[in-house]
From TrEMBL:
Gene Ontology molecular function, alphabetical: integrin binding
Record protein name field: ITA10 protein
Primary gene name: Itga10_1
GO BP: any one term: cell adhesion mediated by integrin
GO cellular component: external side of plasma membrane; integrin complex
Amino acid sequence: PLQVSFTLELEFSCSILLDHAEVMLQATSDSTEATPQDNVVKLSVPIRYEPNLFLSSNINLHRYEVRPLGTFIHSSGPEFTTTVKIQNLGCYPTQNVTLHMALPALGHHQATILSVTHVLAENATCVLQPPDEGTQVVPVPPEDLQHMDR
């Protein structure tokens, strides 16, 4: 029996989105066959498009004041804005994208170092949730910066 193996590489258009591709293969021969009807096969394969998502963030506060332990003033610090953007750089539409962000909220001796005051969302739905009951918030450990130049 003769056996042939080959690979098909298909390229799809960005303007026409297909959910499956159909390929028909037919083998022909000059010989006389008893069962020529089994020389044709139709294949249908689902198509899944790979997303090309780009995640970027920007913050408007680039300087932080570090104080020695024990001299922490229990008041809110400067307000800052963090902008997170998700862009689809590909030509295929993407649906049901979910982004989970974990924000540090506790410092030394369980001191609150971050609180979210408000959320602005464009083309998105944002849900602000406290940690789950079973999730333990790990405090940010204090750093010894005395021997650091920068």
